[in-house]
Amino acid sequence: MPPPTLNLPALRVLNLPLSDYSRVSKLQSILFNLHLLYKSTQGTSKAIPQPPPYLITSSFHPIYTFGRREAARTPPDSVLNLLSSNKAAIAYTPRGGQVTFHGPGQVVAYPIIDLKRHELSPRCYVRVIEKAIIRVLETFRIEAFTTEEAGVWVKDNRKIASIGVNLRRWVSSHGVALNVDTDLEWFQKIVACGLDGVEMWSMRKELETRLEQGRESRALVEAIGMTYGKVFRKKVTEEVVSEIAKGIGCKLTYPIGADEVEKLGEEYGLSGEDGVEWLKYWDASGLYYRVNGDNIEMEGEERVPDDLTKTDIKDTEDKEDDTNPDEEGAGGVVKSRD
Q1: Where does the BPL/LPL catalytic domain start and stop, copy by copy (predicted)?
Q2: By three-state DSSP, how is residue 227 classified?
Q3: Is the pLDDT of residue 294 over 80?
Q4: Which residues pair with 253 in a beta bridge?
Q5: Annotation says 124 is catalytic
């Protein structure tokens, strides 16, 4: 955790309702690239003021997201079928980690901060986010812990929160997804986070399990289901914001609106394109379109075989140097599983 003597500005918090992933991705990209613009213009006549730390919270319409190291892999047919029937979107993102699901019932938090300003190493930053989520769960009497894999877990090898972070020049994007009352059936279509044998879990499932075992009050479980979980998720979101702010050393938080972020984009010429690629169409023949910004590319039936070896994947990964977040233009992906 950063030293309490750091004089950090208030954490600007953009709290969005259930949203399309593309909308949140664009807003995140504007703030992320604003930090990078500040770094690249220092010492020049075009220097801009240092941006404050930001945090975006939201939940998404159903979408499967893949980490940058999975860019060459075609999603499994079980996921592509959902795309073709317009039940879920698919996107390739620049974050670390492997495939995961985002949807209603989650609380997603994306800090956009300069780790150097907060005196955090990449590894410490991930631990700060994990500990923040553990403290949130403790508030609701859920015991959670970490393992050698990134994320937050409860007993019986059940994962309740996933973390996938992207760093460039020490600036963070993406973050953590906490399952509150998520429909866990969505995770059955994938090997979530690339971890075989791991069961994805939620706060609601954990509390219901405790209720069945006579270890939890019915009132708390019923509270989760109030107004389809909206009241409870709002409370969880507030706790997530508070704990992340403490973890990164910000004593104060300050709410902002999406219009403020969009104005920053207009002022500094930031489009909000952050390298996310979308699969827009798929049919039984295996044809689909990847869309990245204004570029549309159709891909054919030839796919990466399902039995692609780990060695092959590593060979691809090693072509990029993403180990030094200080290096200009380096990807800087924190190598954690989402």
Answers
A1: 49-252
A2: helix
A3: no
A4: 11
A5: no
d(CA 281, CA 222): 40
Residues 6+ apart with CB under 8 A from 43: none
User: pTM higher than 0.85 for the full model?
Assistant: no
Question: pLDDT tens-digit profile of 230-263?
Answer: 888 899 999 999 999 999 999 999 999 999 999 9
- The CATH code of domain 11-292 reads 3.30.930.10
- C-beta neighbour count of 156 within 10 angstroms: 8
| Residue 330 confidence (pLDDT) | 35
Closest listed residue to residue 301, CA positions, set 315, 278, 285, 289:
285
Q: Tokens 């219009």 belong to which residue?
A: 259
Active-site position among 193, 203, 241, 245: 193
Residue 35, C-beta contacts closer than 8 angstroms, at least 6 positions apart: 51, 112, 113, 114, 171
**Domain locations in the chain?**
11-292
Task: State the chain's mean pLDDT as an integer.
Answer: 81
Amino acid at the residue 259: D
